[in-house]
Design brief:
Layout: H1 11-17, E1 28-32, E2 35-39, H2 44-54, H3 62-69, E3 84-89, E4 95-101, E5 107-111, H4 121-132, E6 141-145, H5 151-168, E7 172-175, H6 177-202, E8 217-225, E9 228-237, E10 240-250, E11 261-264, H7 270-278, E12 282-284, H8 290-302, H9 321-330
Parallel strand pairs: 3-6, 6-7, 8-11, 11-12
Antiparallel strand pairs: 1-2, 3-4, 4-5, 8-9, 9-10
Helix pairs in contact: 1-5, 6-8
Length: about 325
């Protein structure tokens, strides 16, 4: 499986906690220890009694949990292969969810510029899973965009991923926003390159820019603030995109690779855009979609890059502003 925790470790808690709720996600959550623990609207005692009536072997009592952890109770291994996955993004203004099961297409529900007067995340999760025919017992993992991005969006989507993973005993895949952007825009970029090559060949003007010869490197410019920006370098091979490096640097002293793609949004300074064009790089407007998270997550899963739910945390380009203000006021 590669490096990382054994996903079978998640089953002991997940098999018992799953009986506490009937849906895909918990109704409410509370903080206990280092992670989110699911709760139902009913009291803990009533929940336990109800679970024991449904299935005594799987009720969330301590004896059953200890027996399952030491292997005394049989359990079905859901992690032999990739059965199904759920992917979430909300690090930017967009909200995207994708659900997938082996042998079927990825089903995505994306809201690229959603209104802020309603909740888009949970209804989108429900819709994507319903359309993909994915049920909670089939999930092998849950992936989430970890940023850099907006503070509220990151905290909300990561908390949602943690709560689902804790209830159903799932490992989590932390997907950097740069990878999400690259995987989201690549199909359109590849299609444009293919169309250009076809037109050039039909007009007799040569072979044009073919997919085989086009650049497979990219840079994502995120979280621009003043003279600095979070810049990630990515490479693409036959298995998809991977992130090679990322850090906050002075964009005025940075130059992209010739022929590469530069993913820069509306906040990208005009001077930086001009510099990229001067170095022969192509500027592309990034998007963040559930499909992008899903495609990036499937490669990370194959590489064994997954974590426990409590280990999920946002990736900030800089210290959160609230922390900075607190330090300034209190001299920390």
């Amino acid at each position: 499986m590669g490096s990382g925790p054994d996903p079978r470790e998640f089953q002991a808690h997940g098999r018992t906690a799953r009986r506490a709720t009937d849906g895909l996600w918990p109704c409410t959550c509370r903080i206990r220890g280092r992670g989110l623990v699911a709760r139902t609207p009913a009291s803990q005692q009533r929940s336990r009694a109800r679970c024991r009536r449904r299935d005594p072997a799987r009720g969330p009592d301590a004896a059953c949990l200890r027996a399952r952890r030491r292997g005394a109770l049989p359990r079905v291994d859901r992690f032999e292969g990739m059965t199904a996955g759920l992917a979430i993004t909300g690090s930017q203004r967009a909200v995207g969810v994708a659900a997938w099961r082996d042998g079927r297409d990825v089903i995505a529900v994306n809201h690229l510029d959603p209104a802020r007067d309603r909740d888009w995340l949970w209804p989108s999760i429900d819709e994507a899973c319903r359309r993909a025919g994915v049920v909670a017992s089939e999930l092998s993992w849950i992936a989430v965009d970890i940023g850099p991005g907006g503070f509220s969006g990151l905290r909300t989507t990561i908390a949602a991923a943690q709560s689902i993973a804790m209830v159903h005993g799932l490992p989590c895949i932390a997907v950097p926003s740069a990878l999400v952007a690259a995987c989201s825009v690549w199909p359109d970029v590849a299609a444009c390159a293919h169309a250009s090559a076809t037109c050039a060949h039909a007009s007799g003007g040569g072979s044009g820019a073919s997919l085989a010869g086009m650049s497979v490197s990219a840079h994502a410019v995120l979280a621009v603030k003043g003279a600095t920006a979070w810049i990630a370098t990515l490479e693409r091979d036959e298995d998809g995109w991977r992130q090679c490096a990322a850090s906050v640097i002075e964009w005025g002293r940075w130059a992209p690779r010739a022929g590469s793609l530069v993913l820069g949004d509306a906040h990208c300074p005009a001077a930086l855009r001009e510099s990229c064009e001067a170095h022969g790089a192509t500027m592309v407007e990034p998007t963040w979609t559930g499909t992008g998270v899903m495609n990036a997550a499937r490669r990370l899963w194959q590489d064994g890059q997954f974590v426990r739910p409590c280990a999920l945390s946002p990736e900030y380009a800089r210290e959160p502003e609230a922390v900075t203000l607190w330090r300034q006021r209190h001299g920390g």
